[in-house]
């Protein structure tokens, strides 16, 4: 089973946006064991899109088109597909109803150009789009599958996962070799350092092991190819055991799990609450924690003490301590953690203070110097880090370091 | 003058890395006024690469290939180009010398497979690569230009800027046209509603106007093609004036500017300080504000009052008010804004409370209901929104809504 991706959009050719949809779909297709040999990007141009459709039609079984489903004139993907296949466009009343609701729910006026978003090539099935007005299309025609998806990633991804993958899986039936993939996430070790430890595993052909360094963690992608789920899972299990044995102390999560989900799960398990005091991360830790649905059950909230004034007035950090040690210090980090814990009556108080840059660094306290601290009924302690990188990267590393310190604290319970 | 990009690499098809080179090159070509109508991604496969070369050879004057210049067996771009054009590969002794130096400088042993990196299709010119071992290739053959560049962006970009752009410019000679682009960002109007107002401008060929909807804003991309910078800038200026006249009330930023940068600039201009109280956004507003370097000058910080307890203890929201109106209400939003302003002594207090979902919604207070409020020395007021979408999208829309309310407040000063 062979797929081809056709990304439609002049903004992609002009380099105004990056084609993240192609990467996302490539990853998803690989996980399904569906071959992908061509990704083609064309602009909002009927003639060139038709030429690309013709080429793809000859070499692929599944054509996946992204972009060009908007209400505007330059959005013409569905129209061009319909012309290419000599299918008329038919108004899908259900989709039109959904679009009308989309606007009325927002108390916004629906303009006529939105009506065309409810048009489908004859025989096509509308794929729901909870995050936008344009439905996707699933079209089975002459032994081929044509899938049309909206351009915005936050519309495309849930649509693909909820409405395309299930159809593809049941299309593949038995005749597919399973490709199963798992991600193992490490914190506290460098990529090359880890590489040395698993060199031999990285060299193996099946299952494969590939590392990917993110600013806040190292990800290992384990991928196994086999005739059955069980077989693939066994290959993955055995490889993961080896990783566990060699790098276990650094592994904190698997697959889609994030550090904040792990922290949340541990808090629920021990029935504990958390509050955080943030200086250099400026709310990023709280933001990550509250991205987890249901986090209100264990996360009380926090204080972003960006100014020294708030450190003293809200977090009860002694002014004298700020003067003697400075805002970026072990003492202040620990006082912030104890302070947020006492004013929120949370079981655990976390704190982070540092210099995110680009300004504010000195020779003895350079940009990238960060202290994270945890306070609990057993006392308060902290760790110091020195990173390099731009402001947002240092914020992310600092946030992850605090979450990891909290995680380790909870694991000792 | 027409270019085509062929990105070579199985890792691109598997979605293991994003094709940032294509975006970079698209941007560069647009700036040079060189047309780009196709970007094709193929794996490390000779047959398919040849097919892509054939198609590109028919429709483009300049073929730009990226990736597949490494020392390993699956790196075969130069070999395939040579075969496709029936040119032999010739060892470039200068390049070989450079590669040897590259290794000796790093005290590393050069393995034989690196020798093949010094091979060039006959007639090709080696493009120096200070950041890696693989030289690029500039080949003029039968009225076509073939450019071969290494995959790693930090090798490709300097090579393109220092050795390809000068050659392209002098190739273009006089017929060199400039393409200039500008982005105008709108808040508070839907894409299709805006489209109705600027239909005629979207239909124009030069300059072009294209819209792109993000969860938190609408972006209009103005692109002008002309013989000179001045001419292009004039076209952009005139189009922007028309947009300003028709949609000015919704325009909040241009080009790379973000809502939080605009808010920061206005705060500095009026020499005012800001603090925020966040419920459903969970720190996202503070995080965005502190992504701006130098924000500590005007941003005092804030409180993430995720639990009702913190709303009363830290933000001084009356318990009775919470009981009567609920945490997600006009009254509580305004009380939070007044509360954060008074406890931080900031000039302006911003607040947001809502239901991000997926849980917590009721029939009268559904998921996506959000109140934002601003408090200042002139009093406090709020706005109510009802959005749809997943948790993180609602958080982003709520954060942007608060920042916009603060921006509008500052504009009235």
Compact summary:
Two copies of one chain form a homodimer. Chain A has about 425 residues and is α/β, with parallel strands linked by helices.
C-alpha termini separation of chain A:
50 Å
CATH class of the largest domain in chain A: Alpha Beta
How many helix segments of chain A? 14
Helix and strand content put the structural class of chain A at alpha/beta
Tally of structural domains of chain A: 3
CATH architecture of the largest domain in chain A: 3-Layer(aba) Sandwich
Coarse shape of chain A? globular
What percent of the residues of chain A sit in helical stretches (DSSP H or I)? 40-55%
How many strands, which pairing sense, and closed or not: the largest β-sheet of chain A?
A: 6 strands, mixed
Q: Strand-residue fraction of chain A? A: 25-35%
Gyration radius of chain A, rounded: 26 Å
What's the pLDDT, averaged over the residues of chain A?
93
User: Strand order of the main beta sheet of chain A, please?
Assistant: 2-1-3-8-7-6
The oligomeric state of the chains shown is homodimer
Q: How many individual β-strands of chain A? A: 17
What is the assigned CATH homologous superfamily of the largest domain in chain A? MoaB/Mog-like domain
What is the name of the CATH topology of the largest domain in chain A? Molybdenum Cofactor Biosythetic Enzyme, Chain A
Uncertain regions of chain A: pLDDT < 50 for 5+ in a row?
Answer: none
Biggest interchain interface, per-side counts: A-B, 99 and 96 residues
């Amino acid at each position: 089973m062979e797929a081809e991706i056709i990304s439609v959009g002049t903004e992609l050719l002009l380099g105004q946006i990056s084609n993240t949809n192609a990467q996302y779909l490539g990853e998803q297709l690989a996980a399904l064991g569906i071959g992908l040999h061509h990704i083609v990007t064309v602009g909002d141009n009927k003639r060139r899109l038709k030429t690309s459709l013709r080429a793809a039609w000859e070499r692929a079984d599944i054509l996946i088109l992204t972009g060009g489903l908007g209400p505007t004139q330059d959005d013409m993907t569905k129209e061009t597909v319909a012309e290419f296949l000599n299918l008329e466009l038919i108004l899908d009343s259900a989709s039109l109803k959904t679009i009308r609701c989309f606007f009325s729910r927002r108390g916004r006026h629906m303009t006529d150009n939105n009506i065309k978003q409810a048009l489908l090539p004859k025989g096509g099935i509308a794929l729901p789009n909870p995050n936008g007005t344009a439905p996707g299309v699933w079209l089975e025609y002459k032994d081929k599958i044509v899938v049309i998806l909206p351009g915005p990633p936050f519309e495309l991804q849930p649509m693909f996962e909820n409405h395309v993958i299930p159809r593809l899986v049941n299309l593949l039936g038995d005749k597919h070799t399973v490709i199963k993939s798992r991600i193992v996430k490490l914190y506290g070790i460098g990529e090359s350092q880890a590489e040395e430890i698993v060199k031999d595993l990285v060299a193996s052909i099946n299952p494969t092991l590939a590392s990917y360094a993110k600013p806040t963690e190292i990800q290992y992608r384990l991928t196994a190819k086999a005739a059955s789920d069980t077989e693939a899972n066994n290959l993955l299990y055995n490889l993961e055991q080896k990783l566990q044995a060699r790098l276990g102390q650094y592994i904190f999560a698997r697959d889609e799990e994030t550090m904040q989900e792990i922290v949340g799960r541990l808090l629920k398990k021990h029935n504990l609450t958390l509050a955080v005091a943030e200086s250099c991360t400026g709310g990023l830790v709280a933001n990550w924690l509250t991205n987890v649905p249901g986090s209100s059950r264990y996360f009380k909230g926090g204080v972003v003490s960006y100014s020294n004034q708030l450190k003293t007035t809200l977090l009860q950090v002694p002014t004298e301590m700020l003067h003697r040690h400075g805002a970026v210090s072990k003492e202040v980090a620990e006082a912030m953690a104890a302070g947020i814990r006492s004013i929120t009556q949370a079981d655990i108080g976390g704190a982070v203070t540092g210099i995110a840059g680009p300004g504010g660094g000195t020779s003895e306290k350079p940009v990238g110097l960060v202290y994270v601290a945890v306070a609990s009924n057993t006392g308060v302690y902290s760790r110091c880090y020195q990173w390099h990188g731009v402001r947002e990267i240092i914020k992310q590393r600092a946030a992850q370091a605090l979450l990891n310190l909290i995680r380790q604290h909870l694991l000792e319970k």
